[in-house]
């Protein structure tokens, strides 16, 4: 039995699909996930090592600024439509799982036109254009942020399911803080700030953090993931109180000691911070589509789990004031941690997989083929 996972372009649209696919296979080893993505997305690097069969299509994003390039988007969709016809001719999928991004558009459009049932997993508090466009035909929609429900035209309120974002959950037995501090070479009384801007790093965050760590307050220690391309520029900041790494993997020992995190506000990042109950200072990427990271950050600020600090207001002084204010107020830190825990959905991948598996017997038996 085949399930097609469609989505990608960025890790935020690809990695949830991989997490769900693995969870589905644990429940139903007879199910064969098949991934459909874009040649120019991150999937061309990740999928070859995933163990799953896949096809990469010549798909393009919607060019919002260079609108004259949107002929490529249209032509890519037409070409992808023909390729999907060939790919699916021998075996009709029992279900399609759309995880968003431009890489999902062709597959979801094909599923809608051919009566192939599909579900969606939405990543942000403001769902992607793809998720909004196809939401009315989705059998179920799995929400990373409950706030996203108001932006979707679901067939019913029951179709909207607050699952959280599918992440690698914290281990059942989390690293003990004293042991994790020793891993980093920090003293038992260290107050730790975790900093990272994603796998590629953030030039804006790195520049400010570089100035800030030059004069840290007493007892404050920093674990700083600069991104691979930026590490050489900031490695000189390594000291007895600052650990500078290109990439934090594995990251469990960093999460285990973090009193506060300074990060971007992508879905997967904030979902992991919530799962580890870490108070966050979120600096959204201002160029993200529809400014969705700002919507994410504001949603978590309203619930008390995070502080939204716009990139335009991120300076050495504002960062120092925000960190000092948090680390000096244990009551607020505890409240933020509790708010994060209340929003955490660390078992999201398994929750979604169970719902998908529950749909399979009906769909694979040939029922509910129309997109009504």
Notes on the structure:
With 372 residues, the chain is of the alpha/beta class. The chain has two domains: 2-168 and 347-364, Glycogen Phosphorylase B (Rossmann fold); 177-343, Glycogen Phosphorylase B (Rossmann fold), CATH 3.40.50.2000. Helices cover 40% and strands 16% of the residues. It is built from 14 helices and 13 strands. The strands form two sheets. A seven-stranded parallel β-sheet has the order 3-2-1-4-5-6-7, sandwiched between helices. A six-stranded parallel β-sheet has the order 10-9-8-11-12-13, sandwiched between helices. Helix 1 (11-27) crosses helix 14 (348-364), helix 3 (70-87) crosses helix 4 and helix 7 (203-212) packs across helix 12. The longest helix has 18 residues, at 70-87. The radius of gyration is 21 Å and the shape is globular. The two termini are 23 Å apart. Residues 365-372 have low confidence and may be disordered.
Structural class: alpha/beta
- Which stretches are poorly predicted, pLDDT < 50 over at least 5 residues? 365-372
CATH topology of the largest domain: Rossmann fold
Gap between N and C termini? 23 Å
Gyration radius, in Å: 21 Å
- Domain module tally: 2
Mean pLDDT: 90
State the major sheet: 7 strands, parallel
Number of helices: 14
Supply the CATH superfamily name of the largest domain.
Answer: Glycogen Phosphorylase B
Which strands sit side by side, in order, in the main sheet?
3-2-1-4-5-6-7
Give the beta-strand count.
13
Write the H/E string, N to C. Answer: EHEHEHEHEHEEHEHEHEHEHEHEHHH
* Rough outline: globular
CATH class descriptor of the largest domain: Alpha Beta
CATH architect. name of the largest domain = 3-Layer(aba) Sandwich
């Amino acid at each position: 039995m085949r399930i097609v996972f469609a989505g990608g372009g960025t890790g935020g649209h690809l990695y949830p699909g991989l997490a769900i696919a693995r969870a589905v296979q644990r429940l139903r080893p007879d199910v064969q996930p098949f991934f459909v993505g874009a040649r120019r997305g991150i999937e061309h690097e990740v999928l070859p090592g995933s163990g799953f069969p896949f096809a990469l299509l010549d798909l393009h994003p919607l060019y919002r600024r260079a609108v004259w390039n949107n002929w490529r988007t249209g032509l890519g969709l037409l070409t992808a439509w023909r390729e999907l016809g060939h790919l699916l001719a021998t075996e009709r999928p029992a279900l399609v799982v759309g995880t968003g991004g431009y890489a999902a558009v062709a597959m979801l459009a094909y599923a809608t036109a051919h009566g192939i049932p599909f579900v969606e997993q939405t990543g942000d508090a403001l769902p992607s254009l793809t998720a909004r466009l196809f939401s009315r035909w989705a059998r179920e929609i799995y929400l990373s942020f409950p706030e996203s429900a108001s932006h979707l035209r679901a067939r019913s309120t029951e179709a909207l399911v607050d699952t959280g974002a599918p992440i690698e959950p914290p281990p059942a037995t989390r690293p003990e803080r004293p042991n994790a501090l020793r891993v980093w070479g920090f003293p038992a009384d260290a107050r730790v700030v975790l900093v990272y801007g994603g796998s590629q790093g953030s030039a804006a965050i790195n520049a400010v953090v570089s100035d800030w760590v030059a004069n840290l307050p007493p007892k404050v220690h920093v674990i700083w993931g600069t991104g691979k391309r930026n590490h050489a520029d900031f490695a000189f900041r390594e000291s007895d109180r600052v650990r500078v790494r290109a990439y934090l993997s594995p990251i469990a020992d960093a999460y285990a000691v973090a009193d506060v995190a300074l990060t971007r506000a992508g879905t997967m990042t904030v979902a992991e911070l919530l799962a580890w109950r870490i108070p966050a200072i979120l600096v959204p990427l201002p160029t993200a589509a529809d400014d969705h990271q700002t919507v994410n950050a504001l949603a978590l600020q309203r619930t008390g789990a995070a502080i939204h600090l716009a990139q335009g207001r991120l300076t050495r002084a504002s960062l120092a004031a925000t960190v000092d204010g948090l680390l000096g107020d244990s009551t607020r830190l505890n409240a933020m941690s509790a708010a994060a825990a209340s929003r955490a959905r660390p078992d999201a991948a398994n929750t979604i997989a169970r719902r998908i598996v529950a749909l399979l017997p009906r769909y694979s038996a040939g029922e509910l083929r129309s997109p009504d």
